[in-house]
Amino acid sequence: MSFDATAAAKRIAGAASAAMRHRLAGGVAPAALPSSRMAVDVRGASLGILASLATIAALFWAQGFVIPLLLGVVVAYTLYPLVAWLVMARIPRIAAAMIVMLSILGTLASGAYALRGQMQSIIESLPEAAAKVSGQIARIRVNPVGNLQTVQGAATVVEKAAKQASGGPAAPHRTATHVIVDEPTFRLDNFLWKSSLGSLGALGQGATVIVLAFFLLIGGDTFRRNVVRLTGPPFSKEKVALLVLNDINGTIQKYLFVLLTTNVLVALLTWLAFRLLGLQNAGAWAAAAGVLHIVPYLGPAVTAAAVGVAAFVQFDSIAMALLIAGVSLVIAGFIGTLVTTWMTGRIAKLNPAVVFIALMFWGWMWGIPGMLLSVPIVVIAKVLSQHVKQLAPLGELLGTS
Asked: Mean pLDDT throughout 343-356?
């Protein structure tokens, strides 16, 4: 018994001394060390990644259906205030929707008819523009085959001179090797056929968007009430859903109003600048600049390239072409960077970097329609994140603060 008590006392004393030494060394007892490992739900993260990839694949596969649907919703949001104003004036909703749609289509058709002469002039000048641009490219193009032959001839002369200087026999005369470079051929008929098919597809989608927007305008608040009803019977859920839909409606309408205002401003400033510079068909080019400015970044670049070619054909001067193209880019950059970004930030408080990433992603997914829809999609995500607690981290990512 005495042996066991002595051994136990020695063990207790040894443990106490070890703990004392550990404390004196500035450490913490091993039992008190917190675990540095963070629990990770590998299964949940894997399922989330797979679900995201499946959603992206489904959106890409169903773009022929999803793009006209979203564009129709955006057009309906844009025209809804006009229809609501006519309904308040005791005009039946279906008649109000028809009046608004026909007025918009008639205005666009009238504008195109008024500019038909300038558009026809631009189309007729395309062969001359192609000939001048190709001739200019041919004059400044570096011929790789000719340069290769020149280098080979110089190498032969140097080799011959070196042989003669060393007293050896002269190098035999070598004939220049002809290098054949196969250049890809451009088939105009294939290009026109593909362009025609693309134009027909765009017209079909445009008609689908117009019809869908018309039916949404006729429905009015019915669709929104049905969505609220699907959230469940509790009044709190219905109230939150109605608040979210109203917020999305107001924010998108404000953004679309900003987009319309800035595009009209781009068209007016472009027309004034082109008139002062003496560019022919300034009205048609200004209308094209206003329409293409809807597509961020890509639209102004296409406009600058086109007006640069037109200026080169008219003035036969590269400096004048660069000047007019630069003026177009400056106007689009000023309006897009300062006015649009500032007003969009005031309306939706979006991070500009997030907007640019959204443009890249949706442009990669759906092309030009994706770039048109990218900002409304981000706006909807931002509004949802403000009202749904689970999406609060997404709101922090999309916001400016």
From this structure: 71
